[in-house]
Write a structure and sequence with these properties.
17% strand, 8 strands, globular, TIM Barrel, eight-stranded parallel beta barrel, single chain, alpha/beta
């Protein structure tokens, strides 16, 4: 299983804007996008996930759905990103065997718990404080990333996230992190996807091979 090094996590002032931004990200060369919507009914979420799937299929971009693993299965997304640890076992039973499952972590203990659940990648953050973070988890920065990666010594790809800009990429990669999840820096300028990809040295040959 190969996990792309750049994840665009969608944002927008409305569900429609999320879809428009996913389209822009795909057109600008994003290899993976995550449809990240909160407080939307399942019915609405299914409709939006279908729209996102149509766009990502056209561009051959991978699509992850945030939290809604049943919808991820229904639209045959490439996987699901779970913020809540309790959902892993249920999600694994529901999704197709080929679908990716990723999880959110803020501490070394979170990472260890996710590795035990055999997630395909871990999203670790926040790198810096952002307005979108719930209940203000500890900001990790370069030192936090380094400490966690050194302690983990894992093959599981770790994707850093939380307020990351192109200026941060080199320092973040030096910690041993595999890639980055980006929201604001890309939404503000979709041309930065090209720069992120250059910095991450993203190519299908160079992507981290995740062996089970």
């Amino acid at each position: 299983m190969v996990i792309p090094k750049l994840h665009y996590i969608s944002e927008g002032n409305s569900p429609k804007e999320h879809i428009e931004n996913i389209q822009k990200a795909c057109a600008s060369g994003a290899e993976l996008v995550q449809l990240h919507l909160k407080d939307v009914s399942d019915k609405k979420m299914l409709k939006l996930a279908n729209e996102a799937r149509e766009i990502t299929s056209h561009f051959q971009t991978r699509l992850l759905i945030n939290d809604h693993y049943k919808i991820a299965r229904e639209v045959k997304a490439d996987g699901v990103h779970l913020g809540n640890a309790e959902d892993y076992t249920k999600a694994r039973l529901h999704v197709y065997t080929w679908q990716i499952i990723g999880g959110t972590a803020n501490t070394l203990q979170d990472c260890e718990a996710l590795i035990e659940k055999e997630v395909d990648y871990i999203s670790l953050g926040p790198f810096r404080s952002t307005a979108t973070e719930d209940n203000n988890p500890t900001v990790l920065g370069v030192n936090g990333f380094t400490a966690i990666i050194d302690a983990l010594k894992t093959e599981t790809p770790i994707i850093g996230n939380g307020g990351i800009t192109t200026e941060d990429v080199t320092d973040i990669l030096n910690t041993g992190i595999s890639g980055v999840g980006v929201t604001g820096a890309i939404t503000n300028d979709f041309n930065t996807i090209k720069r992120f990809n250059q910095l991450l040295n993203t190519s299908s040959i160079d992507e981290q091979r995740h062996t089970f």
